[in-house]
């Protein structure tokens, strides 16, 4: 229906082909007034129309939807050791614990690291190779091991940057 199409005699709309019907006085309304619609009680019932007085109340509907919460992948920090072994003591207790840069996250036992430290303490031909292996794994220096004169059983695994567990 195209309300801007008018004609003073019965005809059809040139755009859609619908029959033009004469406008009655009840259908016409003054500018600035709202148009009204009249529905029979049977039609009101079938449409579910409810009539009432205006009142103030919350219009926020309650929606229940299924959802899956996933962590933000941009904040994921992966830590990897430089040698084989296992964690003997974990210093981070729970998810959400803050970890500072350089803080010990875990103490790791590595048979390869203990062997390299013992070779370094014994001296001999393999000192250079043992020193390189210890440095590559982030193990204490030879001077700190010689002061205690024994190999460290567990090496502290430190964080490279601040993050949240």
UniProtKB/TrEMBL annotation:
Coiled coil: none
Pfam families: BSH_CusB (PF25919), HMBD (PF19335)
Biased composition (Low complexity): 142-165
Annotated keywords: Transport
GO biological process per UniProt: copper ion export; plasma membrane copper ion transport
Domain Heavy metal binding: 1-22
Superkingdom of source: Bacteria
Matches recorded under InterPro entries: BSH_CusB, HMBD, MFP_Cation_Efflux
GO terms, molecular function: transition metal ion binding
One GO location term (cellular component): outer membrane-bounded periplasmic space
Annotated CusB-like barrel-sandwich hybrid domain residues: 79-131
Residue numbers spanned by region Disordered: 137-165
PANTHER family: CATION EFFLUX SYSTEM PROTEIN CUSB (PTHR30097)
Name of the protein in its database record: Efflux RND transporter periplasmic adaptor subunit
Taxonomic source organism: Alkalisalibacterium limincola
């Amino acid at each position: 229906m195209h309300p801007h199409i008018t004609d003073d005699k019965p005809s059809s709309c040139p755009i859609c082909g619908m029959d033009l019907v004469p406008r009655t006085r009840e259908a016409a309304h003054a500018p600035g007034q709202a148009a009204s619609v009249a529905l029979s009680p049977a039609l009101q019932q079938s449409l579910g129309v409810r009539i009432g007085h205006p009142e103030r109340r919350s219009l926020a509907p309650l929606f229940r939807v299924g959802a899956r919460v996933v962590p933000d992948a941009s904040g994921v920090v992966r830590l990897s050791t430089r040698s084989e072994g296992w964690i003997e003591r974990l210093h981070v207790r729970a998810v959400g614990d803050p970890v500072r840069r350089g803080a010990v996250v875990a103490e790791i036992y590595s048979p390869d690291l203990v062997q390299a430290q013992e070779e370094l303490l014994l001296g001999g031909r393999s000192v250079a190779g043992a020193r390189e292996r210890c440095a590559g794994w982030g193990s204490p220096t030879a001077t700190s091991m010689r002061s205690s004169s024994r190999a460290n059983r567990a090496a502290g695994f430190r964080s490279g940057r601040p993050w949240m567990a």
